[in-house]
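look at this one:
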Amino acid sequence: MSSQDAHLQQRESPRRTFLDTLLGLGFASTFMSILYPVWRYVIPPANAEPATDSVVAGKVSEFRPNTGAVLKFGTKPAILVRTSDGQFKAFNAVCTHLECTVQYKSETSQIWCACHNGLYDLSGNVISGPPPRPLEVFKVNLRGEPGQEDVVISRT
């Protein structure tokens, strides 16, 4: 080996080390960018959903008889129904079949899931269709001064 070859080999060694390090960092960052979403999917955050026990739906005067309203109860929807005789009933608005959001049908006074035509009565029981279980029933309370009462929905 000539002295010129030895000199060239000494000059290339730091460059080769730099390129190897750069290539290694590229592989490591590519691997981490693939692994991180998979890891977050397999192990979700510890406190993903805040626990909600009650929600103020609004004033009594905001809900006319024989109407229904879908409200937010934590991260899930709830349905509040004011019957034709003025009673309030509340349920989890997620259908027990495939988790579609249900709605109130005033013509038949029933709760209806549009996804697969599931029907529930005003006690949350399944009347017809594919839902395997009744809707979760929430407790409804009125709070405040007469005439200005709030409708409060809570878990039983």
Remarks:
- Helices lie at 3-42.
- The chain is about 25% helix and 35% strand.
- The chain has a mean pLDDT of 90.
